[in-house]
Write a structure and sequence with these properties.
Layout (H helix, E strand, L loop, with lengths): L1 H22 L4 H5 L11 H10 L2 H4 L1 H15 L1 H32 L4 H49 L4 H10 L7 H14 L4 H12 L2 H13 L4 H56 L1
Helix pairs in contact: 1-6, 3-6, 5-6, 5-7, 6-7, 7-8, 7-12, 8-9, 9-10, 10-11, 11-12
Length: about 290
């Protein structure tokens, strides 16, 4: 087993450096845009080469499509494909590092099978954890948008009541916000930029709905598109009804987050309880 692991380690290292020399600077321009967003970028050229050479995107389309859908939600349609490729490249790099590390540690321990199987387990679990983390990022982004949306709707109601058009109200919501880096404001800012560029209003709102990929945003854009031409009380009444629903949704999200925070505290509390029991009980046991 030790000889086989040694040969496998040397083979992986030789193939990696061979591919690095072959790829050269082919993917340098692509990688430059993602240096601060993904890990193990030093291995990205080889991983991207393997993706293209083995046609991984085409062969595992059904699985990768789910990742790409998350990237569309996080980064939009324009760069979703590039982000998906870089994410898959990162997964391949992590798998290669885990396999190489497993072989090396097993060699150092003179063929210990426990270390070998633990290493293989990590090789499987780390990519799964990375995909799970991506899903959590998408979920957190959606929750942030849903949390901020009721406030935006209320501002639009006040501004429209004051005599401004829906377009002007959206622009004012973006320009007067206190947190320009929030997910919803970033999307609205892009929407406002399209409006200023004289793109059709209905197309701009449809793009916003597709980009966010959230049912409540779709209801918000549909409500505006159905009523903004009429204006007056119809739009205000529709937005007020929507605002009430969104505030209830926000309360539910806040309640869920509170319950999750409470559940995360259970394990540390158990550890503290065990530690206290040991500190209190050990002297009593020694005396007995």
């Amino acid at each position: 087993m030790v000889i086989a692991l040694g040969i496998g380690t040397l083979l992986i290292i030789a193939v990696y450096f061979g591919l690095s020399l072959k790829v050269g600077k082919t993917y340098e321009v692509i990688i430059a845009d993602f240096k601060d967003k993904y890990q193990l970028m030093i291995m990205a050229p080889v991983s991207l080469y393997l993706i293209d050479k083995l046609k991984i995107m085409e062969r595992f389309y059904s699985q990768i499509a789910k990742i790409q859908q998350k990237m569309i939600s996080l980064y939009g349609n324009r760069t979703a494909l590039q982000h998906t490729r870089m994410f898959i490249a990162q997964l391949i790099s992590i798998v290669l590092v885990c396999i190489l590390g497993t072989f090396l540690f097993t060699l150092v321990s003179e063929g210990d099978q426990t270390i070998f199987f633990v290493g293989l387990l990590f090789t499987v679990l780390l990519p799964i954890a990375m995909i799970s983390k991506l899903s959590n990022q998408e979920k957190e982004r959606k929750n942030q948008i849903l949390t901020e949306l009721p406030e935006v709707v209320n501002k639009i109601i006040l501004l429209v009541n004051a005599g401004e058009t829906v377009q002007q109200a959206l622009i004012r919501c973006v320009t007067t916000t206190k947190d320009p880096n929030s997910p919803l404001i970033r999307e609205l800012n892009e929407t406002v930029n399209k409006m200023v560029s004289n793109e059709p209003f209905h197309q701009v709102l449809n793009d916003l709905s597709k980009k966010c990929g959230i049912q409540e945003i779709s209801i918000f854009t549909t409500t505006i598109l159905l009523n903004y031409r009429k204006g007056g009380n119809d739009l205000i009444i529709a937005l007020r009804e929507l605002s009430h629903t969104l505030w209830e949704k926000r309360k539910a999200i806040s309640k869920t987050k509170g319950e999750e925070a409470s559940s995360k505290l259970v394990f540390p509390l158990i550890l503290i309880f065990v530690a206290v029991m040991i500190i209190v009980g050990y002297p009593a046991l020694t005396i007995m």
